[in-house]
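forwarding from the other thread:

> can someone predict this with zinc ion?

sure thing
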Amino acid sequence: MSEKKLLVKGGQLVSETGIIPGDLLIEGERIKAQGLKGAFDNINVDEVVDASGKYVLPGLVDPHVHLDSPFMGTVTVHDYNSGTIAAAYGGTTTVISFSTQPKGGSLLENLEQTEKKARDQAYIDWSLHGILLDAGPKTLTEIPKLVEAGVPSYKCFTTYRHADRLMDDDSILKLLEVTAEVGGILMVHCENDTILEYYLRKELARGHFSPIYHARTRPPSAENIAIQRIIDLMKEVVAKVYIVHTSTAESVEIIQSARVQGLPIHSETCPHYLTLTEKELEGENGQFFICSPPLRVERDIEALWIGLANGCVETVGSDDAGVSPQDNLRLAQGRFDKVPSGMSGIEPRLSILYTEGVCKGKIDLPKLVSVTSTAPAKIFGLYPQKGHLGAGADADVVIYDPEPEWVMSAKNHHMNTDFSPFEGFKIKGKVESVLCRGSFVIRDGALVGKAGHGKRIFRRL
Ligand SMILES: [Zn+2]
């Protein structure tokens, strides 16, 4: 039996290198060929999808989501089912979530449990990073096996001492060493714990419990120092590092100068750091905007956009990690330091970046494709299977209509929460259809995919 042939016709094909009018021929789960307009007109296809007036992008890769993750006494609102539905509505066809090492336990065993949670649930493809809680002998011997098991990336923290997640310099050096040996990539959440604890003690003693003190107790300096420290350690042991969710203006410069020195460091930011400021913490819903690092100020937003434009910041991940507003309120009891920090943002990445970045002239469309799809695919070992519209790639395709104008709201999003960090944002353009490995997941704005279509992607760097 021959495989189904589908022609996406008349659109503007966008890649990280440019935009060309052209047609896309899909056969089964793969892209068969990309051609100029009309190039495949004499081929018999099963279906033609009219993309005239639309942009055709490679499916987005979200390198940073926390699906079905226990955190601070609750669990994130998105599991592999609801999270991948919302992701698909936003044009994402691959998410990389996390499997967390139980304290003192085996990450490899946890991988199996995470796999169980995801089985038959996902609408789009998914992959896993590890989260490491210690750098003990057992963990270090497990890392090569982890890489073998298709998980060449794993995250650690320079903070959360209170939750027993902090990695000290000694541990980081050990992780860098094994990472260099196995050819993996170490992801680091950078905030200097000592600075955070210093301010936290001080503000709590003064009776300051409102959400804005989340930002006051996690100053930009804490992030900057932690990033610089990682870079200093990388100079001792050179290994690939990916700094997750950078949020400060200085982080862009610090990472840039490390790059100039030839260090293999990558960095990510998130839609919320590109659009929202700490003023949100002073509003009525302040505590729902608590994320770590915290939202910053206008100056940081400007620097991050420039960093994206000039390539210093390479990726935009959602860091989707929201808990339900009900859990947030219940666990916090009016204290900013008890809020399970993190926001839901798995859906709006493309429309926010298109509206706030492309339409406002901060980045162009090829850059948008790069930071949301191609660059994360390349950094994390998914390219050219993902993040690419060329022959042989998975037929993960987004058709984006640039015309519609609408207002983003918790009332019209598909995330499993009644809070949207981007409530009231005026949005330009809309995801019209999404294919994941040749099958429609979203068609003309409606969910038509199936749970279980999404499969686990094993990665190799
Ligand atoms: Zn995260």
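Residues 64, 66, 244, 319, 321 surround zinc ion (CB under 6 Å). thats all i got for now
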